[in-house]
Model the fold of this input.
Amino acid sequence: MAKIVAIVTIEGGSVGGGAPIFVEPDTIKRESTAFLLEKILDANAHDLKNGSFILVDHRHE
Done:
């Protein structure tokens, strides 16, 4: 079972839940933050194409 470990978004009010949320209004910085967290968390970054990335641990059990 996969687990969302972080969210990087353009606007904090558009997302919620138990994962840490990183608000990055700048497109380039948002992408950079998502890919950096991907490496740090050993997770996969998925672009939802709505201004948000989710970072998912697909190995979570």
In short: The longest strand covers residues 3-9.
